[in-house]
Please model this.
Amino acid sequence: MIPELGHYALMLAFGIALIQGTMPIVGTRTNDPLLMSMATPAALAQFAFVAIAFLALAECYVVSDFSVFNVYENSNTTMPLIYRLTSVWGNHEGSMMLWVSILAFFGALVAVFGGNLPAALKANALAVQAWIAAAFELFILATSNPFLRIANAPFEGRDLNPILQDPGLAFHPPMLYLGYVGFSITFSFAIAALLEGRIDAAWARWVRPWVLVAWMCLTLGIAGGSYWSYYELGWGGFWFWDPVENASLMPWLAGTALLHSAVVMEKREALKVWTILLAILTFSLSLMGTFLVRSGVLTSVHAFAIDPARGVFILIILVLFIGGALSLYAWRAPLLKQGGLFAPISREGALVFNNLFLVTACATVLIGTLYPLALAALTGEKISVGPPFFNLTFGPLFIALMIVMPFGPLMGWKRGDLLGAAQRLMVAAVLSALAVAAAFAISHRGPVLAPFGVGVAIFLMAGALTDIIERTMVLRLPLRAALMRAAGLPRSAWGTAFAHFGLGVTLLGIVAVTAWSSERIAEVKPGGSLDIAHYRLTFDGLFSRAGSNYQDVVGRFTVHRGDELVGVMEPSRRSFPDRDMATTEAALMTRGVSQLYISIGDPNKDGSIPVRLYFKPQVLLIWLGAGFMFFGGALSLSDRRLRIGAPRPAKARKQKAKAALQAAE
Amino acid sequence: MKYLHALALLVALFATAPSLAVEPDEMLANPVLEARARAISKELRCMVCQNESIDESQAPLAHDLRLLVRRRLVAGDSNQQVIDFLVSRYGEFILLKPPLSWNTVALWGAPPALLLVGAIMIVVVERRRKAIQRASGMPQLSAAEQARLAEILNGETTT
Model:
């Protein structure tokens, strides 16, 4: 009964999406406020029915209803409740349900919080949102129905893919989808603006919070996925330039560009046409990410769908939405009026530079990912485009971007002072040079370029701090006055500083781990030990441990630093009898922001085991940096001008700060 | 058929897989040769995997290739000779870094070309925009207006 209820609710949601996608647009054409106002209740009903369908599927998993084919395929009564819940989206059908649910959720948010939007813009945007929903709901109903029943229900389900039985699955896909789907809102607003043929700075102010939210979630989603593969794959790689990873990186790059160009549009009414294009491209890349992952064009752990019918369906969705949006853009964009002028050396100029490099980097990833497919289709020749290609192309683009980054926030709008900015960055530059020298002095090995990488990272971090120090005058004013100024700074300024600082932190982690990791690969017998970077690990022996639906063979290692006992590490080999598969469960020990990392292989007959042991210096900085970026986004999101839609800070506060300043003088 | 292929791949990846990438018994006793072997392995693709090098991959094929690389090194091949040998056997597909050829000119040329085109476009659009603005004369003030504006501004700043 429950699955049928879910199925029915999904059909109703599809029906509502068709109404929501047409009536409000007719309303805006005929100027009928009644039709336009249909969008809001329709979006809410849409969310309600999709939520019912999603919860129905989740309920099937919770109670282990194996008469539902999808549950039978991907769940098992012995799995802990948390994995039974996460298996809802650990498969193709369920992940599509999650996609649509998040889409409907965002639509409902626009309906609820969009009270101050112009009626026509809101109606159009929600209608476009409904087209996307309708397309994906039809896709689920026609090719990927998760509510399909089996005539004779089996007693036990097959298991979830062991690789996916991990807390990472609870976090990574939903965050990623929040990001992907979040960009659908900006897409809808962009299409709505094109339909109306009108766009202004207020548009950017409405859209920016959505871009921010999507960008924040995508940042965390990518970082989470990277950490997941780091500890799950058994050798501590954090980024592979795998097509599926690239698929999530591309919307992030385009989204980052969009975030910055939307600022220009909001403040200066410039770059309107470009911002609209970026909004379309960002969501197109999100859609393509879904296509690349789901269609089976690329086979990997992520590719659940191998049925070609689904691939063709998604391809049609892709062509209709991207092609349609770009055609509309080509037709309507010339109608949009251009805004303010600016000198090349200015905040706007810096942001244009940012956009140029981010978009080029994004295109590089796109070309690198699709080139082998295209070449094979055209000439039949097979080539590989792997990490070395991306490191050689994407790397320099990003390094250039990061060197210029600290200058941006120090530059004035309309006309900036490059020399002044450079002078203010002197301290950062000196710090960075010292860091390069120190890195050269300390490191005896590793690539020659690594110390310079450290230098760029320090420059970026110090540069981000410079902006805050300059604006709060913390070095020139008494502390109280400086704190007052700090409180008076717009939160978006803090957000910028945090996000830029975070990128520096991430870069520092990447450089340190890539250049200065130590590795030991060896076989150890019980009682034997391995030395790595100040640490000595002694292998105490193997024991076995039973989990709910798996069996572990655990190796126990005691870790010493000098004579001091630091702790115990227990890496294991985990076998899943239901699927006849095994995974490597590495053990990690955090020391400051560095980690010891150990994974073991199957034991040999003589009692020894093969061991991979790593010391990963500063590795946690990679993800800590992403955390800073997320926090920066959150600060920016809480900025007053985004909350109430008023671009000016309160007068009283300004006067207070002024008074404090005068008192200090 | 495609399904079977993917399944075989999955099985190859996870089920029968030895647990580690480079295994201790594969490694050469000579640390210099071993370091060279590792460096070469990082440039070679495990052909049944997704963009994984044979240094990282757990697939049996990668294991065989790692041994092959080491055998050639022990026999006295230079790094380039080992790579050439593998390319002659498996084609350019095995190289994670595609060599520059007619097939890959577009690939390697695209990033710098895009950057250049983007920069030129920005300059052209900017020029045209300024020209249009100047031609339309809208934001231009007459000399009298300029003077009046200066007056207002001065008036404001002095009070």
In short: The CA atoms of residues 47 and 127 of chain B lie 50 Å apart.
